[in-house]
Amino acid sequence: AGGSQVIFTNPLEIVKIRLQVAGEIAGGAKVRALSVVRELGLFGLYKGARACLLRDVPFSAIYFPMYAHTKAAFADEEGYNHPLTLLAAGAIAGIPAASLVTPADVIKTRLQVVARSGQTTYSGVMDAARKIMAEEGPRAFWKGTVARVFRSSPQFGVTLVTYELLQRMLYVDFGGSRPAGSDVAKAKVDVARVNPDHIGGYQAALPMLNGIETKFGLSLPRFGAPAAVKRQTS
């Protein structure tokens, strides 16, 4: 899942970064998204894609199992999750996923941003990792960790709770198993208020009547289908 999304997100990431630092680089000149795309070209839009893979693949590998287990832990005895528990599960899962992949995000950003005059340039993932370690130390790889958590945790919490609720509303039964988390709340029966004399109903009466016939030799009347119905069925 993480690897496939890079195909779509990497071009958007590099354009976003170029627009965010455009004022600093171009001295106030206005930079548009279309001009960035034309300047970079098709292959330029995938600059830093390896670093993006190093970020998004571990993120998905951490996030989705964490979300699934947290959602299951928050579910009630019937397996139902309230929207607030779904939101909490998505937000909690985003904390380790977003924080642990920060080094890859730092490298990706350094590769995709336009270097200013006199600033260090990087030729690839390993080159960027070596230069960042030599010039800034290991702490540089964790810059922006808190900001990433505060962005990704609520972002994916809202995304997953929206997905789960839409799944409940739009689910169509094609004969397969219902996806976990798509169940709606089930009405609970108060067993204490149920009359025990009514439990079983017809299913309990049938063997009792059969027992009366066999034990006491009684012949109870049998009510079959009307004669007209029998002729039609024959």
From TrEMBL:
Record SUPFAM superfamilies: Mitochondrial carrier (SSF103506)
GO annotation (BP), single: malate-aspartate shuttle
Alphabetical keyword list: Membrane, Mitochondrion, Mitochondrion inner membrane, Transmembrane, Transmembrane helix, Transport
Recorded topology in the membrane: Multi-pass membrane protein
GO cellular component: mitochondrial inner membrane
Pfam families: Mito_carr
Localization, UniProt: Mitochondrion inner membrane
Solcar repeats: 1-73, 81-169
GO molecular function (one): L-aspartate transmembrane transporter activity
Similarity-based family: Belongs to the mitochondrial carrier (TC 2.A.29) family.
Protein name (database record): Calcium-binding mitochondrial carrier protein Aralar1
Source species: Anopheles melas
Lineage: Eukaryota, Metazoa, Ecdysozoa, Arthropoda, Hexapoda
